UniProtKB/TrEMBL annotation:
Signal peptide extent: none
Catalytic activity: holo-[citrate lyase ACP] + acetate + ATP = acetyl-[citrate lyase ACP] + AMP + diphosphate
EC number: 6.2.1.22
Official protein name in the record: [Citrate [pro-3S]-lyase] ligase
Gene3D superfamilies: 3.40.630.30, HUPs (3.40.50.620)
Matches recorded under InterPro entries: Acyl_CoA_acyltransferase, Citrate_lyase_ligase, Citrate_lyase_ligase_C, GNAT_dom, Rossmann-like_a/b/a_fold
GO MF entry, a single one: acyltransferase activity, transferring groups other than amino-acyl groups
General function of this protein: Acetylation of prosthetic group (2-(5''-phosphoribosyl)-3'-dephosphocoenzyme-A) of the gamma subunit of citrate lyase.
């Protein structure tokens, strides 16, 4: 054991990264595209015998060489990554793993949040973390025959989003609106939330929730143990819906509203899975036609494209007054610059 050493691997360490990739592939794992810290355990000949990575407060790409399994190396990798997380101020840590490996991580102090059998298990290091989250949501339970939910990133909040919320508010006693609080969008969460609140302030039956760490976007869902992109989308959708169904039970939600998706292949596939699975849990899935402007569907991607191209004259066709006013303000200038400098502003 004393012959092994563990250390951070920088992105420019080509040899170590090649060895990590070889180890991962040998264990049936692809390097995830979202990583911000990677470590490796080396033997006395500087071969990589174990590895693990982080992205935000999640652990990913955990693997031990088949030749060294049973030596307790993963315990050391997990201890190292946990220390890294704590040093960054993250005490609440999550991981995704194959169903077959969940028991091992249970022995290391991780607790199952939701399982999609044969695909993925989502785990956390707090025994009652998800239960406490559900209990907090339950304090906002509202009675009614029809209680709806919307999950929204709103990057930014458009007339399409507004139409969806207004329709749900008109057709239901209460609408629980979950704002994706994961801060990986071009527009920061604090701004996205504010624009949603301002844009829907005329509606009186909306209950707003930050999504917290349990509802994440497809952009950061781990792909490393999925065979292809469609498998990633399906696994994310099933896991997300598993969490949403538990939330719905706590809040008495019996409907979910989503917008029709004519432009994003990812969201369209997600909607198809939702339409099939939610009714099985007693939740009606209502997909409404996308609002159009100038003969084209309104989407946040279109708005970001117009901003990137500096075409502000047409924004009023796509944005409510509150969002438009923000992008005309001095406060929005750093965000506008960030969008203009982004390589990709369209989500497929």
């Amino acid at each position: 054991m004393s012959d092994y050493s563990i250390s951070k691997v920088s992105s420019n360490d080509k040899r170590s990264n090649q060895l990590i990739d070889q180890l991962l592939l040998g264990e049936g794992i692809r390097r995830d595209k979202n990583l911000d810290y990677t470590c490796a355990m080396f033997d006395e000949d500087f071969n990589v015998v174990a590895t693990g990575s982080c992205y935000g407060n999640t652990l990913r790409c955990l693997a031990v060489s088949s030749e060294h399994q049973g030596e307790g190396l993963m315990n050391q990798v997990m201890s190292h990554l946990t220390e890294v997380q704590f040093s960054q101020g993250n005490s609440h840590i999550f991981l995704y793993t194959k169903s077959s490996a969940a028991r091992f991580f249970s022995d290391l102090g991780f607790y199952e949040i939701v399982r999609i059998e044969g695909k993925v298990v989502f785990m956390e290091n707090k025994r009652s973390g998800f239960k406490d989250y559900i209990d907090r949501l339950g304090t906002n339970k509202k009675e009614g025959d029809n209680v709806a939910a919307i999950v929204m990133n709103a990057n930014p909040f458009t007339l399409g989003h507004l139409t969806l919320v207004e329709k749900a508010a008109t057709e239901n006693d209460m609408v629980h609106l979950f704002i994706v609080s994961e801060d990986v969008s071009l527009i920061p969460f604090s701004v996205r939330k504010r624009l949603i609140l301002e844009g829907t302030s005329h509606l009186t039956n909306i209950c707003y929730h930050d999504s917290g760490p349990y509802i994440i976007s497809n952009a950061t869902f781990p792909s490393y143990f999925q065979k292809d992109d469609n498998a990633v989308i399906e696994s994310h959708a099933l896991l997300d819906l598993g969490i949403f169904i538990k939330i719905s039970e706590s809040l008495g939600i019996n409907r979910r509203y989503v917008g029709e998706e004519p432009t994003s292949l990812v969201t369209a596939l997600y909607n198809d899975i939702m339409k099939e699975r939610l009714p099985q849990a007693g939740i009606e899935c209502i997909i409404i036609p996308r609002k159009e402007a100038a003969g084209a569907p309104i989407s946040a991607s279109t708005v970001r494209t117009l901003i990137k191209e500096g075409d502000f004259s047409h924004l009023s066709n796509f944005l409510p007054e509150t969002t438009l006013r923000f992008f005309q303000s001095e406060e929005a200038q750093p965000i506008i610059q960030k969008i203009k400098e982004a390589d990709q502003v369209i989500h497929y």
